[in-house]
Design brief:
Layout lengths: L3 E10 L2 E11 L3 E6 L6 H9 L6 E6 L2 E3 L4 H6 L2 E4 L11 H5 L6 E2 L3 E2 L1 H13 L20 H13 L5 E5 L7 H16 L3 E5 L3 H7 L2 E6 L2 E7 L5 H9 L24 E8 L2 E8 L4 E5 L6 H8 L5 E8 L2 E2 L5 H7 L1 E5 L2 H4 L7 H5 L1 H7 L6 H14 L16 H14 L4 E5 L7 H16 L3 E5 L3 H7 L2 E6 L2 E7 L5 H8 L4
Parallel strand pairs: 3-10, 3-11, 6-9, 9-10, 15-20, 15-21, 18-19, 19-20
Antiparallel strand pairs: 1-2, 1-4, 4-5, 7-8, 11-12, 13-14, 13-16, 16-17, 21-22
Helix pairs in contact: 8-18, 14-15
Length: 501
């Protein structure tokens, strides 16, 4: 009997179907791998199991009994633990407190029992003795730890649930080889105890090293479950990609080859920083260079570093043959770089302010303006908004009155008033409708045709395959492969992302 079973589970967010049909069986004593591209439905399926998302339809069984997982607490009560890819730690609490956060031992009904807390946490800290690194202790504040150490705390937190079923969503992404090896030793021990493990990883070597079976999810549907000992990486990737893996995006024809000769506009050599290492590439005027690979492999980190939003620890930059130093976004803007984030709430929109103010800040910065006549500002802003077919009632209306797609158009339009030399696009279509996406990519291709150099990261494969002249595939913070010409296929994109070559 399966320890956990899902049958016909689905979830929609308005018109968006995140999970069409999720089927999954987790046996006692196995590591069951979930495979699928960005947006395939893996995370939605895991969130349903963990109780953070309620399914619209379908059945969930634990040890053969139908259950309703009404929330995270209900999931814990039913014996389900989870490691989230987005760490859920409290930076101002200690390692021990974070490990036991879901169930802090009490004393006298009011206070935390510090001795019991330390004793419980020490059991899980001891599992990683010798590989956790300097400064890692029960008393250390999580906010003072390195990225790999914080990830270990999140793993310990999941292990402390002692749940019969535990979900690990990309738990090794920040760990070094010694830490991964130790973690896999722990997983093998959990298997002998009869636990059921759901495991998601972007590394094919890890999948084949620790997994027993794998379920492939594509476009929101469970495609197939297979034994890893009886298949190979190429077959898994074919199942993830589907039949038409060698065809370009249906949304656009293959883009023109782009410029093949001439001096690079932007040259990057051995660039390293938080989340990426030794990244090198050139971008020619008029070229769209795509950043591909699974989500969170360093693509966004590189773009933010180029824009001065995060620090660079090594490497060099040249713009038009001259050395380039970007200390902060202001210096990047004045050097001719622009940045558009898909997270417009964090990185783009100025909430509570009118549309005109949201469209004009780069113009103010480049022209060093303190004041501007409304009519002159309107004359600058309207052509840029018109180029993106932006819908709005008045420039005086607050930006919050617009749809998400039109808000993103405002954020992009601000860069069209004072044209940059290099445009950095960090998953720019996240959360916007198809019509807005079409407007955006029509403009991107037009800007490239006019000689602008464009770096495009997208979590949607079709957007890269349909618009980028070349694609650099990222894995673990480094570029693992460059795809050009006829090699720009979904299959090759997945193969490089999962290191199956």
């Amino acid at each position: 009997m399966a320890k956990l079973s899902l049958s016909g589970v689905s979830k929609a967010y308005g018109a968006t179907l995140a999970l069409r049909r999720g089927d999954l069986d987790i046996e006692a004593g196995e590591v069951h791998v979930l495979l699928g591209s960005n947006g395939s439905g893996k995370s939605t399926l895991c969130k349903i199991v963990a109780g953070s998302v309620r399914p619209d339809k379908g059945e969930v069984l634990i040890d053969g009994r139908p259950v309703t997982i009404s929330g995270p607490q209900a999931a814990r009560a039913l014996g389900i633990g989870i490691f989230y890819q987005e760490l859920s730690l409290s930076e101002h609490r200690s390692v021990a407190e974070n490990i036991c956060l879901a169930d802090l031992p009490g004393k006298s009904g009011i206070f935390v029992d510090r001795a019991a807390l330390e004793a419980r946490a020490s059991r899980y800290i001891a599992l990683f003795a010798g590989v956790a690194g300097e400064g890692f202790s029960a008393e250390a504040l999580v906010g003072n730890l390195r990225a790999d150490q914080r990830q270990l705390v999140e793993i310990m937190k999941a292990l402390s649930s002692e749940a019969p079923v535990i979900i690990f969503d990309e738990p090794t992404s920040a760990l070094d080889r010694a830490q991964v090896d130790r973690f896999f030793e722990i997983l093998r021990q959990l298997k002998t105890e009869g636990r059921g493990i759901i495991f998601i990883s972007h590394r094919m070597d890890e999948i084949t090293a620790i997994g027993d079976r794998a379920t492939v999810i594509r476009d929101g549907e469970t495609i197939r479950t297979l034994k890893l000992s009886e298949t190979d990486p190429a077959e898994m990737i074919r199942l993830m990609v589907g039949e038409n893996s060698d065809l370009p995006s249906a949304e656009h024809e293959l883009p023109a080859a782009g410029p093949s000769a001439g001096a690079p506009l932007l040259s990057v050599r051995n660039l390293s920083g938080k989340g990426f290492r030794d990244v090198s590439f050139d971008v020619l005027p008029g070229e769209i260079l795509g950043f591909g690979g699974l989500h969170g492999q360093g693509q966004s980190a590189v773009l933010r570093a180029l824009f001065g939003a995060s620090s660079i620890s090594g490497g060099s930059l040249e713009l038009s043959g001259r050395s380039l130093a970007v200390a902060n976004p202001r210096s990047a803007i004045r050097s001719g770089l622009a940045y558009v984030s898909g997270d417009r709430g964090r990185d783009g929109v100025i909430q509570g302010r009118p549309i005109v103010e949201n469209a004009a800040p780069i113009h103010y910065l480049k022209e060093r303006l303190l004041l501007a006549r409304p009519s002159a500002l309107r004359d600058k802003v309207l052509p840029a908004l018109g180029a993106l077919h932006t819908k709005f009632a008045s420039l005086a209306h607050p930006i919050g009155s617009l749809s998400g797609g039109n808000q993103q158009k405002i954020v992009i339009a601000r860069w069209l008033i004072e044209r940059p030399e290099v445009l950095l696009l960090d998953d720019p279509t996240k959360g916007i409708d198809l019509a807005a996406k079409a407007d955006l990519f029509n403009l991107i291709r037009q800007l490239a045709a006019e000689g602008m150099a464009i770096l495009l990261y997208s979590s949607e494969d079709a957007e890269l395959l349909g618009n980028a002249n070349r694609i650099l595939v990222f894995n673990g913070g480094a570029v693992t492969r460059e795809l050009t010409g006829a090699d720009r296929t979904r299959y090759n994109l997945y193969q490089a992302a999962y290191e199956a070559a």
